[in-house]
Amino acid sequence: MKKRKEIYFLIFLFILLLAINYSFLDKAVVNFLENNEEVYISRIVDGDTAIGNNESIRLLGINTPERGERYYSGAKEFLEKEILNKTVQLKFGKDKKDLYNRTLAYIFLDGKNVNSGVIKSGFANYYFPAGKDAYYKSFKEDWNECLKREINVCEKSRDICSSCITLKEFDYKKEKIIFQNKCSFQCDLTNWEIKDEGRKKFIFPEFILDGNMEIAIHVGDGKNGKSDLFWTGETYVWTKTGDTLFLRDSEGKLILWKGY
């Protein structure tokens, strides 16, 4: 009798373990299907947007030049070469859709992160407006690799003032930037560009920064003073979750960058 009870108990444990494991496996399968999806890429819109299964897909973690900007065509052509007319796997982040109802995803082809490749090839900067995720560190490393190679958007400026202009202060909480000309001669900053990780951009008006002098740029409406400029048209530029400042010369070449 005792032996029979032990057998029944073992059978009960076996059934219980099977139920637990099947529940676990079922949950794992559901999670996999929810966070991964295969699509056929039928069109490339630009360097960070594609069309797959009749839906717009915005590549996560990167931002490429817009139409009319330098390297726009190069970024688009790179993505076409990588994934056009191919079946890829999408891996989703925190949010699956953006405000424009575009699918937000990391694209993988044969196990390779395509988003990462766009940065390495010098056609994008890293971009995490919703907050840093598991790919932030590796994408930043991709950016550093791009800088070492000095290709495309990572090409360093050869302007005579490229080594003169330094970032003295970057107060993203107060939306204030201060640049300093550490050289003794004047620097013409006309049409130089300040940009965040995304689309927000400030273009210097006709402006000369004297030697050993500073210039402050404030975000918000205001009247230009003798020493300050205002980034108008924006209520804020620098995101609380982390952002990057890029300074480029009038030819779009990189002067400096600073992230937080």
Percent helix: 25-40%
CATH topology term of the largest domain: OB fold (Dihydrolipoamide Acetyltransferase, E2P)
Strand order in space, largest sheet: 1-2-3-6-5
How many H/I helices? 4
Radius of gyration equals 25 Å
CATH architecture of the largest domain: Beta Barrel
Strand content: 25-35%
Give helix and strand order, one letter per element, not per position.
Answer: HEEEEHEEEHEHEEEEEEEEEE
CATH class of the largest domain: Mainly Beta
What does the overall shape look like? elongated
Give the count of structural domains.
2
Number of strands: 18
Helix/strand structural class: alpha+beta
Please tell me the overall pLDDT.
89
Low-confidence runs (pLDDT<50, min 5 residues)?
22-34
State the end-to-end CA separation.
71 Å
Could you describe the largest sheet, including whether it forms a barrel?
5 strands, mixed, barrel
Describe the 3D structure.
It is a single chain. This protein is α+β, with helices and mostly antiparallel strands. It is 26% helix and 32% strand. It folds into two domains: 35-153, OB fold (Dihydrolipoamide Acetyltransferase, E2P) (Beta Barrel); 157-259, Lamin Tail domain (Immunoglobulin-like), CATH 2.60.40. The strands form five sheets. A five-stranded mixed β-barrel has the order 1-2-3-6-5. The N and C termini lie far apart (71 Å). 28% of the residues are buried. Mean pLDDT is 89; it is low at 22-34.
